[in-house]
Design goal:
The protein contains 10 helices and 5 strands. Helix 1 crosses helix 5, helix 6 packs across helix 7 and helix 7 packs across helix 8.
């Protein structure tokens, strides 16, 4: 089955994901970030030891082919010309290395005119005889389809083996229960009014357990896999903002809980493909527990007939 690549990306989100693809292709030890917080990135986002320089770009327009192509042409031409504008800075960054390929890396590429336009700019830049350009220097435009092998490897790659998912300790569970026991219980009684006391207590312990396990997973990701942690928290934050603005989807509590859990799970699988299935499940299930504890997930009082 053909892969359906996602087209709509936030700029920072695409930058992080494209870096993961580049690292799979070139190996992490051969990829150097060029930070952009001080005086910009000089038209280079990632430099590889074999002479490739990548500039990530996610067009805001994803459906209009002409507008997306125009934006890509403008972005690529602007950043290619930074090679000459920032030649002193770039020389210091590169050292003895030469740039063979300058690559505009986008989520998609629909119009071949983008390629010819940027190669024309690259030919102009080559004529300036910048010392860090190889004689066969060229500009390329690549997208996710050009990284299909890397994409599949990244999806198959798991962050799971190096960090086992820690089970919540009795101390952690007791700490959460002592602070938030009544809040969760009140919400669950509104959500499931037909439950007896034993069932409510069982549900409460399940959600508190899931919440604590989610905290453990995210804590370990932050320490061991910061890119995965950042991606995961961005997915969670986006769904939390949606919940606060629009509320949970569904007519019943069960539908609302499942909808929120499924939306987080889907976002994690799409945007953080390096997570293992167990990590995705732990985070998405635990996030519902977290929202029950901390809001914004809540339920109306059952209507009285």
């Amino acid at each position: 089955m053909a892969i359906k690549y996602r087209r709509d990306w936030d700029g920072k989100e695409w930058q992080r994901f494209s870096k993961q693809l580049v690292q799979v292709r070139h190996l992490p030890q051969n990829v150097q970030d060029v930070p952009d917080r001080v005086h910009g990135d000089a038209g280079l986002e990632f430099i590889t030891t074999d002479g490739c320089c990548y500039q990530s770009y996610a067009p805001e327009e994803t459906s209009d082919v002409a507008k997306a192509a125009s934006a890509m042409k403008s972005k690529g031409a602007r950043d290619l010309r930074k090679l000459e504008k920032n030649k002193d800075k770039i020389s210091e960054i590169l050292g003895a290395r030469k740039i063979t390929n300058w690559i505009l890396f986008c989520p998609f590429l629909d119009n071949k005119e983008v390629i010819s336009h940027l190669q024309k700019i690259a030919d102009e830049i080559l004529k300036t005889e910048l010392p860090f350009l190889a004689p066969d220097f060229c500009a390329l435009v690549q997208c996710q389809e050009d990284f299909e092998t890397e994409y599949q490897q990244l999806r198959a790659k798991s962050a799971g083996p190096p960090i086992a998912i820690k089970k919540p300790s009795s101390e952690q569970l007791e700490q959460v229960e002592s602070k938030l026991d009544q809040r969760v219980e009140d919400k669950l009684k509104r959500a499931f009014p037909l439950d007896d006391e034993a069932k409510t207590e069982s549900r409460k312990k399940t959600y508190i357990y899931a919440h604590v396990q989610r905290e453990n997973v995210l804590s370990d990701l932050r320490d061991e896999f910061p890119d995965f942690w950042e991606g995961s928290t961005e997915c969670i934050d986006a769904e939390e903002r949606r919940l606060e603005m629009a509320g949970a989807e569904g007519d019943t509590a069960s539908q609302q809980i499942n909808s929120s859990m499924n939306r987080v799970e889907s976002a994690l699988k799409s945007q953080v493909p390096g997570l293992s299935e167990k990590q995705v499940a732990s985070i998405s299930q635990g996030q519902v527990g977290t929202w029950l504890i901390e809001c914004p997930l809540d339920f109306q009082e059952p209507s009285k007939k």
